[in-house]
Amino acid sequence: MAAAAAGAMLASAVLKVATQKIGSAIGGQLMLRWSLTRDLEEMKDTMASIEAVLQDAERRSVRDAAVRLWLKRLKDAAYDISDLLDELEASSQLGSRKI
After folding, report:
1. What are the tens digits of pLDDT across the range 5-53?
2. Distance between CA atoms of 37 and 25, rounded to whole angstroms?
3. Model-level pTM greater than 0.85?
4. Do residues 88 and 81 touch, judged by C-beta distance below 8 A?
5. DSSP letter string over 14-72?
6. What confidence tens digit (pLDDT) does each residue in 50-85 have?
7. What's the domain range around 62?
8. Rounded to the nearest 5°, which phi and psi values hold at 54?
9. Domains: count for the chain
């Protein structure tokens, strides 16, 4: 049970970092196209919604196996999003150095 709570807390932290990265990408010169900026804004809103649901699920995960599975999948998705944002940021930095 403690492992599930720790995993949920870790997923919440990953979501917060990913949300911050999205916000940073929107505000910086990272985005060259409006459509990408709009997509990132939508992702940021979605991540905020996921974080709110995650907080409720953390409380229920201790007693519900289905919620624990859902949290694992959500955590995996959060890691994937975070990795994607890291790759986007690295790619953008390489592109700006060439200019």
Report:
1. 666 777 778 778 787 777 776 665 555 556 677 777 888 888 888 888 7
2. 8
3. no
4. no
5. HHHHHHHHHHHHHHSTT--SHHHHHHHHHHHHHHHHHHHHHHHHHHHTTT-HHHHHHHH
6. 888 777 777 777 777 887 788 888 878 888 888 888
7. 2-98
8. -60, -40
9. 1
